Amino acid sequence: MRKMSLCFKLIPVDEKPLNRYSRDMYKDMILEFIAKDYELAEVLIEVNNKSYVKNMLQNSIEELDLEHKVIVSIINNKCYLERY
């Protein structure tokens, strides 16, 4: 049996990069949405996976006990916050 070779390259770094979006950032988004008295707002964030953003927002809504005030939805690959 022949062994396959794997091509790879290791790059030394001084430190790991910080996570771009913290859990608190999602909570801050929701609190700002509530404070600004919006009925509907699109969430603009540089993330390819909108389902991940929706899940993070939904988790934050639950942690803030706002399930009966704010809902999150994805329509045409765009994420929205809406008053319930």
What is this entry, summarized?
By secondary structure, this protein is of the alpha+beta class. It is 32% helix and 19% strand.
List the SSEs and their pairings:
Blueprint (H helix, E strand, L loop, with lengths): L22 H13 L4 E4 L6 H14 L6 E6 L2 E6 L1
Antiparallel strand pairs: 1-3, 2-3
Protein architecture, described:
- The protein contains two helices and three strands.
- Helix 1 (23-35) crosses helix 2 (50-63).
- By secondary structure, the chain is α+β, with helices and mostly antiparallel strands.
- It is 32% helix and 19% strand.
- It has a three-stranded antiparallel sheet with strand order 1-3-2.
- The termini are far apart.
- It is elongated, with a radius of gyration of 19 Å.
- The model has no long low-confidence stretch (mean pLDDT 87).
Instruction: Supply the number of helical segments.
Output: 2
Order of helices and strands: HEHEE
Main pleated sheet: 3 strands, antiparallel
The poorly predicted ranges are none
Question: Distance between the terminal alpha carbons, to the nearest Å?
Answer: 62 Å
**In which order are the strands of the major sheet placed?**
1-3-2
Provide tags for this entry.
alpha+beta; 84 residues; three-stranded antiparallel sheet
